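Onboarding guide, step 5: your first structure request.
Type a short instruction followed by the sequence, for example:

Predict the 3D structure of this protein.
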Amino acid sequence: MPIYVRTLSFSASLKFKPEKDDPKVNAALDELQRQGAKIVDIKVSLGGYFFGGVLATYLISYEAPAPIPSAA
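The system replies with structure tokens like these:
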């Protein structure tokens, strides 16, 4: 089965805020799984941007017959 990706990005402070980010990531995982996707991997990275903020990006790899569009 083909593998696709879903990305989620959030502005963050210098550390993760699970109470803020986890519900968004869990909602994306739930949406994918309800539509028949099998989650293969999740990676996260932090990067800075010009005005001194931090961006947290989650990359969700999943197997599915076709790409699943985001509901958001």
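Each response can be followed by summary notes, for example: The chain has one domain: 3-63.
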